[in-house]
Amino acid sequence: SGRIKFDAAIEAVLSLKRHLTDRDRLSVITFSDTARVAYDSGAGGADFAALRDALDPVRPAGATDVMKAIELAAQQAPDPERMGLMILVSDLVPTRPFDPARARRLLVGGGLSLAVVATESPGARPSAAVGLEQLAEAMKAPLVTRRRLTGLAAVFADFLRRFRGEAIRRGRFRPAGDGSVLGLPVASMPP
Q: In the prediction, which pLDDT does 126 show?
């Protein structure tokens, strides 16, 4: 069961290829009782073959320590020209303490927005779910609860659409191009 969920999550991450540009950075953090960066595209576009190779040896096992993943994500060097989105997928087995207020401070301090996919067993309502719901509410983040991870690619794509909005680019950037807008040369416009 754990492997099937994990494989569905891997396929959803790989489906992001259709939604990312060469300017996007993709980091994938795997976590159980520890957390590690399994893949990081760096400043260039994501290499999805390398991503698949990096995730192939990962096996679902151990505790679910969401805080370790959040701590590691918040440590990634923020890029002032990019916005960060952490898509957190957790099975919510409460084996480690979870502090929503601290998690929010870490994510905000790391310049990260949040989207959550929470999986739970039928009939179960683990206490960690309440913590993730509190975190999502505090960050005004979308939260999707699933018993199965089927259709996760569409959920990830929806998260990206919500995060990016209708804009192609957000933030301050230097305009480039020939021509003029309102009589001003495009290249001389302020960021």
A: 52
